[in-house]
Write a structure and sequence with these properties.
Layout lengths: L78
Amino acid sequence: LAPNTARLPDFKTMTPVGQVETLQLDVPDRDWQSGFPAIPNLIEWFAIEFFAQFTAEQEGAYQFRTSSDDGSRLYIDD
C-alpha cells in the first residue's frame, strides 16, 4: 500500500510478497520497525489478507477483535 492511501486496493489484482500458514493469527502489538513475524521485510505499507474457518463448539456469544494502526476490516460469512 502507498502512503496516504484512502481505501484498500483490490487484493485480487496484486501479487503476494509472502505467505504464512498458521493455525491461529495472533500478532501482539509490537514495534513494526522489526517487521512482521516470519516476513521481516514487511515494515510499512503492507496489508494482510487472512482467511479462516471458525467452528463454535457450543452456542453462545463470541467476540472477535482486530488491532491495527491504519485500519482493518473483519468479514464474517462474506
